[in-house]
Amino acid sequence: MRLIASYIVGLVFGVGISLSGMANPAKVLNFFDIFGSWDPSLAFVMGSALIVTAIGYRFVLRANRPLLATRFLVPTRTDLDARLIGGSALFGVGWGIAGFCPGGALPALGTGTPAVFIFVAAVIAGIWIARALQRLTAPHAADV
Predict the structure, then answer these.
(1) Which Pfam families does the record cross-reference, listed alphabetically (predicted)?
(2) How far apart are CA 60 and CA 66, in angstroms?
(3) Separation CA 101–CA 47 (nearest Å)
(4) Cα–Cα distance between 61 and 125 in angstroms, integer?
(5) 139 DSSP 8-state letter
(6) Which of 58, 108, 127, 139 could share a disulfide with 23, CB 3.0–4.6 Å?
């Protein structure tokens, strides 16, 4: 059941990204071009997603537990650390250069454009590198 729910959520997300035009890197890059051919539609897509999420959380978190899990997995940390700031900056720079965020690139794979495949491969490589660095820099249990 969880697999079916994941598929449906992914399908809705992909269709939404595609319909909004956010799978088109030129549209995303035009959002960042504020002194040129600026396109504010990305701000509307993000704002709409924020509103839907805020309303959704209000309803969902009223339940004792999620439908398909034993408990809610809600982040509790509120501090800003170097990993969060660095990762956010790297995400933003990559998005600004490529015109894709990872979520928008996945539906764009269906276009068959080589740039999308290169971007997704780079994201996967980045994930592997980040995990390897995390393992190398994580404190060992014996050192704590």
Answers:
(1) DUF6691
(2) 8
(3) 16
(4) 35
(5) P
(6) 108
SS3 content of the chain, % helix, strand, coil (to 5): 70, 0, 30
Q: How far is 22 from 121, CA to CA, in rounded Å?
A: 19
The total of other beta-carbon atoms located within 10 Å of residue 102's CB is 15
Q: Which domain holds residue 131?
A: 2-143
**SS3 category, 63:** coil
**From the CB of residue 128, how many other CB atoms can be counted at a distance below 10 Å?**
10
Using CA atoms, how far apart are residues 40 and 142, in angstroms rounded to an integer? 52
- Classify 20 as helix, strand or coil: helix
- Asked if 42 and 27 count as a contact pair (C-beta separation under 8 A), the reply is yes
Separation CA 97–CA 120 (nearest Å): 14
Report how many domains make up the chain. Answer: 1
Q: 95 near 101, Cβ under 8 Å? A: yes
Structure-block tokens of residue 49:
């997603």
pLDDT tens track for 50-89: 999 999 989 988 999 888 889 988 888 899 988 889 888 9
